[in-house]
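Moderator note: this is an archived Q&A kept for reference. The question asked for a predicted structure of one protein chain; the sequence and the answer are reproduced below.
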Amino acid sequence: MNATLPTADALRAALAGLLDGLPPKQAGRAVDRLIAHYRGTVPTDAPVLRDRADAVAYAAYRMPATFEAVRSALDALREAAPDWAPATHTDVGGGTGAASWAVAGEWETHRTTVLDWAEPALALGRELAAAGPDALRAAEWRRARIGEDLDLAPADLVTISYVLNELTAPARTALIDAAARAGQAVVVVEAGTPGGYARIIEARDRLVAAGLTVAAPCPHSGACPIEPGTDWCHFSARVSRSSLHRQVKGGSLPYEDEKFSYVVATRLTPRPVAARVVRRPQIRKGQVLLDLCTRDEGLRRDTVTKRHGALYRAARNTDWGDAWPPPEDAA
């Protein structure tokens, strides 16, 4: 969306100078530890970001990917509720504020509160927000332990991105239940791994049980048609690679693809979706193969050929994660 692009540029500009003065080896060590955390090999009973060096390494390395993943989920929410806009937003476990940047790119006017238990992350988030849109500059950054005792004030939009992996099972349950009580719309994003997908399914089930309707990515609020253990639902967002990415990971490509799983649930009445593309479309000579999760038939593959005319042209422009067929105003 046009509003998102300058916000993404502003975030990249704000991140560009973060590593000045931080020795490359120190940044590399911090990133290595963060990678180990996101692979689930570190304890989850303490804040992951311990000091400013950790926060800087996290922001430079992870914020662009988190921003793009959350932005994709928010795009799906806007598609499901095109006439709705949140007046209040709570970013749970928001850290340095990537999800809040994504929300600010989608809606210009709202009040954001960022909750996190790592003060170094909050401090850096405040610093970065000074270069962002008005909603970010006016945001409240509040220290709070993200766990079983968290009390969330009512908010139109609640975002929880890359947080559930840091919590014990009881804390995850309590957090999702609190978000369901507090939010008119709840967006949960996790890593696009089997474990991340499992956490999203747990959250989805609890949100539905609390009376919310799934708006995305699923075209229904019923059981996921994927047989447990055989596959997992995830999507992909393209991310420009920073100098720190290239330093730590090597490689020459200027981008990488962030794999993520997500759920958007709401107390609104979302625009119905017949199906969603759940794998990268396969474009062949004269045809496009679309793997779909459908509202009424579960998982299905459609073959769209030139004989389908306008639908074929739409299929060639359809991407992984898009609704299918595209909404009339997007066709």
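Archived answer notes: Residues 79 and 329 are 10 Å apart (CA to CA).
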